[in-house]
What we know:
Number of strands: 0
Shape: globular
Order of helices and strands: HHH
Helix content: 25-40%
Radius of gyration: 11 Å
Distance between the termini: 13 Å
Largest sheet: none
Structural class: mainly alpha
Amino acid sequence: MPILAEPDRVPRGVLRADDRLAALEVLRQPQAANPSYLTVAQFAALRTHLPV
């Protein structure tokens, strides 16, 4: 997945407000080592916030 331009990035507050994304590893453990992962359901939810 490419890094989005600044105006297209999803703000942390939006991710935290979405119940489907509240348990994202990157939000639970922000200092964890890369790579971080998403479940299939989390990725589908994240895509609803991304530009087309």
